[in-house]
Amino acid sequence: MTSLETRIEQAKKQLDDQVREVVNWHFDPEKGTPFWLKYAASLDFDPRDRIRGYDDLKLLGTFEDAWLRKTPVREWIPQGFAGRPVSVFETGGSTGVPKSRINIEDYRTDYELFSSTLSDEAFPKGADWLMVGPSGPRRLRLAIEHLAQHRGGICFMVDLDPRWVNKLIKAGKHTEFTAYRDHVVEQALVRLKTHKTIECLFTTPKLLEAICEKIDLADVGIKGIFCGGTEMNAQFHRFAKEELVPTIEFVPTYGNTLMGLACHKPYQNDGDYTITYYPPLPRAVFELVDPDQPDRRVAYGETGRVRLTTLTKEFFVPRFLERDEGERAEPTEWYPWDGVSNLRLFTRFSESVVVGVY
Amino acid sequence: MLHVPVLRAGKAYRSLNTQTLHDIRSGEPLALVSQANSGLIARDLNQTAAYQQTLAAIPAQKLYDMSNQAADLFLEATLPVDPIDGVMQSREEFIRCQSGTTGLPANMCAANMEKVATALRMTKTIIDGLSQGANQDTLNRAYRREADALGAILPSNSPGVHALWVPTPAMRIPVMLRPGSQEPWTPMRIIQAMIAAGYPPAAFGFYPSDHAGANEILIRCDRALFFGDARTVDAWRGTGRIQIHGPGWSKMILGPDALENGEQHVDVLTQAIAANGGRSCVNTSAVWAPPGSRAIAEALAKKLAGIKATALDDPNAQLAGFTNRRLAHLLDERIEAQLAQGGAEDLTAKYRGGPRLVEIDNTLFLQPTLIWCDHDHPLASAEYLFPFAAFVEVEPDQMAEKLGPTLTLSLISEQESLINAMLDSPHIDRINIGALPTNTVRWDHPHEGNLFELLYKRRAVQFAAS
Predict the structure, then answer these.
(1) Contact call for B39 and A244, based on CB within 8 A
(2) Which end of chain A is more exposed for a tag (fewer CB within 10 A), N or C?
(3) Is residue A262 part of a domain?
(4) Are residues A287 and A238 in the same domain?
(5) What percent of chain B has pLDDT over 90?
(6) Among all residues of chain B, which has the CA nearest to that of A234?
(7) pLDDT (mean) for B206-229
(8) In what order do the strands lie in the sheet with B428-433?
(9) β-pair partners for A284
């Protein structure tokens, strides 16, 4: 069996290979991405010559938040993909104007890779799904349906507009907030009770709590719950496992419009409910960095701000400082690269941002 | 480290999500406080009908006796604070922790313990006063219970406010408490004292949590008390089921007849402004007097300026320290900025002989401040967490008209027309007539609403003649 050290080295090499392939693609004058080609014109070097691996990405500086908010979206479509159907997905908008990301096949690839981490007992092939969560301009709208279809199921949908929920909460309209939550939950209950083929559920933590107040999900045949869409901490993980859905497999997951879909280190029945996410390397990678000196990677176990790099032929985002922080987690047998534990809103943003309300 | 748990139906539960409380002087961590996730709170609050049943059959006199015993236990006993690890807390340790995390001087912590104990001892008197003597053992013959539990979103500023909710279990209604983030100590100690005195543990929920958790309590409890600043509580006004305890804007008013020997009232005015470190909603934030009152204002300023910041463990300490250093600086800067607009003068500045903001023993204090200004100046209606008041000259015949929201008004005057004008005012919650400071509170009187009337509604019950 290959040692963990060897697998870590293999992952690093895979990452460097991916960096070269993606940089060559996005900076290719014929097939490349208009945004990156314009950016390259402002550099005194050709990124294809100088960027030979992940560490060289720092030559491109730091990816700026505003680029995804203000750049015309078509400038992100690689010329090599001209004519392909394009979707656009938006981030939550909790830190201002939403960031937009184009998508062609990435979400399908991400969710197919994620699918391979799900147990067939809890998420049976051919079983139908219910998705209760943020849809609209979000990737989840198509991604969960694709996951269900990829596993041979059909996906029933109940949509939720988290921006409206945020507005209600910010305005202190608690009655309206409760009414809207109940409206969403009622729709979910109707589908769960009507369609006996539904065995898998995607929903958010808050909606899971609200649904579980009304119904025992095991009684209506749910076997697996894929939970995400917003931040989740160890206490919620434990609460879900011990009280909300003790007999159902509960998979907490972190997705991010810019990154793709992370995988969670499986719970080991050891009382350690810490949620540790691992990015889908080599398609994306996290670094945990010192917020005041972003070039310093923090030590394992130390708190840092998440710096994300996304590396696909559809979308290239190098060294983007995310709105999240967490503790740097060590590579594991399942994921021989760095992860992040206790992911949460970056402390310095937390006073002004409403999240986790859905 | 000490770990203050969540209490679910009185049973300790340790959350994986914790908040660390530090001693504001040394920065030393004092305790971890378990934070309840909102789903957990919601799940528990669905059980409140069952919790209420644990109180339903207990005779009123027994409830009063248990509250009376709880008063002694609260004051003197060593009580559980971390039941999971079997950690107990003595009175002395309680005061040390409370002073350390809230900035209240130790002597004020002890004084506030007395307030809470008094309310526990007076439970029967309070309930009789608020219910106008309704027979508590046959209550459902005349009243409908409006809630299975009373929620309470509690503050950190002054532990004396806990006196407001402590009669609730004796009204046979469980309490679901969200403590102030810096002050889990008092509600935990009251609960443990009441359980030790014989109250059923299921009558108590203790849920340190974030705003989402607080909202869950406010949404799910049919009746609740909500302590908070104006911006926070405004969204919950007007529901009829939530009793709001926001800023007090309490006032002392001197009538024309009080001016002649006005300086004799300086001690009462000083107490109204500065008692309990100026942290209570019943502390005066404005003194109104007819034109010609400058001499009284000067005398008051001189007296207030004599109150100096001292270490929190000084037995004669009169000022509380700020837990949030940034807030102390911001308030000081805001006052200076508003003074700079003109039309206002810090009367205390010349007597104080130094800055308003001082640091003693690694603790920031804002020292007493009396502002001389017009009624329309922004500082005339400001309310801050230290002894701060505006002294405003207002024509007596305009006082009632200009009053605005006032939790407690003390009117020093025997002039009938002025007394009647104040009694007729729709803005005042509590009125003292005579030289009583605004912080003179009787718990058997309504305070920002009547707790009994919040929890029980009069109704008709008829039996057919047999």
Answers:
(1) yes
(2) N
(3) no
(4) no
(5) 87
(6) B16
(7) 94
(8) B344-346, B369-373, B388-393, B284-289, B250-254, B406-412, B428-433
(9) A310
By residue range, what is the domain housing residue A171? 108-253
Q: Please give the tally of structural domains in chain B.
A: 2
pLDDT of A233-289, one tens digit each? 899 999 999 999 999 999 998 877 888 888 877 888 888 898 899 999 999 999 999
Q: Which of A134-138, B141-145, B170-174, B275-279 is the most confident on average?
A: B170-174
Model confidence at B207, pLDDT cuts 50, 70, 90, reads very high
Per-residue pLDDT of A174-211, as tens digits, reads 889 999 999 999 999 999 999 999 999 999 999 999 99
Domain identity same for B377 and B420: yes
Contacts of A235 in chain B (CB under 8 A): 15-17, 35, 37
CB contact under 8 A, A243 and B43: yes
Torsion over CA of A349, A354, A357 and B5, rounded to 10 degrees? 60
Mean pLDDT estimate for chain B: 94
Please report whether residue B464 resides in a domain: no
Nearest CA in chain B to A212: B43
Chain A CB contacts of B218 under 8 Å are 174
B450 neighbors B130 (Cβ within 8 angstroms): yes
Question: Do A212 and A126 lie in a common domain?
Answer: yes
Cβ atoms of A112 and A143 within 8 Å: the answer is: no
Counting runs of H as helices and runs of E as strands, what totals does chain A give? Answer: 10, 16
Same-domain status, A22 and A126: no
> How far, in Å, CA of B455 to CA of B173, rounded?
8
Nearest to A235 among B37, B43, B218 (CB): B37
Q: Do A144 and A199 fall within a single domain?
A: yes
pLDDT band at A356 (very low <50, low <70, confident <90, very high): very low
Residues in Cβ contact with A145 at an 8 Å cutoff, skipping those fewer than 6 apart: A129, A131, A155, A157
- Binary contact (B15, A273; C-beta < 8 A): no
Q: Which two tokens stand for residue A283?
A: 């398609």
B38 in A contact zone (CB under 8 Å): yes
My answer on whether B304 and B390 are in the same domain is yes
> pLDDT value at position A353?
42
B361 and B238 together in one domain: no
Q: Which residues of B touch A244 (CB under 8 A)?
A: 39, 43
In a domain, B339, yes or no: yes
Instruction: Specify whether A244 is located in the same domain as A116.
Output: yes
**CATH (domain of B346):** 3.40.309.10
Task: Give the domain extent around B93.
Answer: 3-246+448-458
Q: In 3-state terms, what secondary structure has residue B172?
A: coil
